[in-house]
Specification:
With 259 residues, this protein is α+β, with helices and mostly antiparallel strands. It has 5 helices and 15 strands.
Length: 259
């Protein structure tokens, strides 16, 4: 169902891989239509984005009623795929300065998920809290005219983030994924990198216009600042899937000065 063949490595201050034809055009169109036909969403956020969030009754019903969405979810919610993506990052970006220190000897949970509001994960026993569990977080999204996102990095529990685009958006409509870097060096401590940086202190270094079937994976390192340019369209929607492979606790990042 998914393909990891057409991989590109764009220029960025943090590791990014872009995969063309990750999903076929036909599959994207069918899942996209299922999202557009969804009558009820879990929330309406970020200036015009409707989401179906993993862990909700809406999500369970959606992947049950949409065969392809359910099949894709099963493919993504898989330790084998997570390891394949992780190996690609490790081999290609060996010299990247930030390394995750506590994502070792982990167990992959197909049932854990992170709530969209707050940092609490699904309930775990005292024993399991001491262990490392990696899980997939996911939402099926459709955004409308006016949607945008300011520069930010994702929650501290995330290891690898990804976007799957289910339709193509013309450049004239905006809605591009913007990649940022800091204008000055901010040192080697995680606390120096706020989740929402001052816009005047970062600059755009790359942009990706949504392209059907394309998927963008990126390491959720302390400097992984990204956002979305304002989407302008009264007729079209921006249909996509946003996901991450997350830890059941904050990821511990260490800066290697040699790199």
């Amino acid at each position: 169902m998914i393909s990891l063949k057409k991989i590109k490595y764009p220029n960025s201050k943090f590791p990014i891989i872009v995969i063309d034809n990750f999903l076929s055009k036909n599959i994207c169109e069918k899942i996209g239509t299922s999202i557009l036909n969804q009558k009820k969403f879990d929330d309406h956020v970020m200036n015009g984005r409707n989401r179906i969030n993993k862990g909700s009754d809406n999500f369970k019903n959606f992947i049950m009623n949409s065969f392809l969405a359910g099949k894709l979810y099963k493919s993504l919610n898989n330790k084998i795929l997570y390891e394949k993506i992780r190996i690609i990052f490790r081999k290609k970006f060996q010299s990247f300065a930030w390394k995750e220190e506590n994502v070792r000897n982990y167990k992959f949970s197909k049932t854990n998920y992170g709530f969209q509001k707050g940092k609490i994960l699904t309930k775990q026993s005292k024993r399991n809290r001491k262990l490392n569990f990696v899980n997939l977080d996911l939402d099926f999204s459709v955004s409308e005219n006016g949607y945008f996102r300011e520069p930010h990095r994702d929650r501290d529990t995330r290891i690898i983030n990804f976007l799957i685009y289910l339709n193509t958006i013309p450049k004239s409509n905006g809605g591009s994924l913007k990649i940022f870097s800091t204008k000055k060096a901010w040192g080697n401590k995680v606390k120096n990198f706020p989740r929402f940086p001052n816009k005047k202190k970062v600059r755009v270094t790359n942009q990706f216009q949504p392209k059907i079937g394309q998927t963008i994976f990126f390491l959720s390192s302390p400097n992984s600042y990204h956002g979305v340019s304002k989407f302008f369209s009264k007729k079209n929607k921006r249909i996509f899937i946003y996901g991450s492979y997350s830890l059941n606790k904050a990821v511990s990042w260490k800066f290697n000065k040699k790199n």
